Amino acid sequence: xxxxxxxxLGAVRARAAAAPRLRVAFVQGNVNQSVKxxxxxxxxxxxSRYVPLTVEADxxxxxxxxxxxxxxxxxxxxxLPSFRDRRSGLPVLSRAHLLLGAATYREARGPGGExxxxxxxxxxxxxxxxxxxxxxxxHHLVPFGEYVPLQxxxxxxxxxxxxxxxxxRPGAExxxxxxxxxxxxxxxxxxxxxxxxxxxxxxxxxxCFDAIFPEVNVAFARMDPEPDLLLNPTNDAWYGYxxxxxxxxxxxxxxxxxxxxxxxxxxxxxxxxxxxxxxxVRPGALPVGPVDPDLAADPxxxxxxxxxxxPLLRGRTLYxxxxxxxxxxxxxxxxxxLGLALLRRGSRPA
Length: 350
Hints:
By secondary structure, the chain is α/β, with parallel strands linked by helices. The protein contains 9 helices and 13 strands. The radius of gyration is 23 Å and the shape is globular.
């Protein structure tokens, strides 16, 4: 195991060093959860924490600027064609694509035919001119945070302790988001003498809780086309100043190791980080922001910007090829061995 691990670690590092790279920028707004809970009231303030640094990253040559989960402060329809509207509060960029999280809604009919609103936790990928080119809705919802399990049986009890919320629907399918970076970004990966354009970049979005599940990672790796960069927009402010954000970061590092791909992780307030395909967190990760003004060292901490180059890698690893086959075989072996032991014990003479 040690020999295989050492050899594989060296091979992954070599592949990452030779791979084309994408310049990404993350904006961490450092907005505490009480303000985010009233996002529509504080919409202008929230955007003031994100827009200036987004423009700065765009002017600095970023190919992709990524905002965290559910950052955009206003509800939008799921089929929104563009954020290019003077009322959106978003600026047209010069070169960078923008990935931003937003809560979406649509009208539906309830069991009694009444009109209800259904929401979804969505990320939108927009071109520099803010036209939307792709979207993905969160696949795994958080129990008690985004939906109430066992509601038909324990509905009255659970509704008495769980806050009222818009009915959330999970995304129907996993979806790879794709865009082509500007020509200048391709020069490092594609020699100018070839005259060829940059290949498309494919993103595998895993919104917050999605990244808990390795089967999501495996499913993305088996897609055609597969992603060459994983994204984990998240909001860890719920955990406050606890071990939660760091435990979540450790779980996301496992997704990088499993897939052999870099993970870009913009956090609303949490640990914003670039994770290499080896699972190593790049220096410069942004720490948890002022999630609780009463406990924060600096309640007025400004928003932060993290910029870095990430390798774009494709191809399956051993894990994304076989999945949990070994774990399943080990479990079956354990059950069989236990059954055999019980049979032998029962056949002994009294």
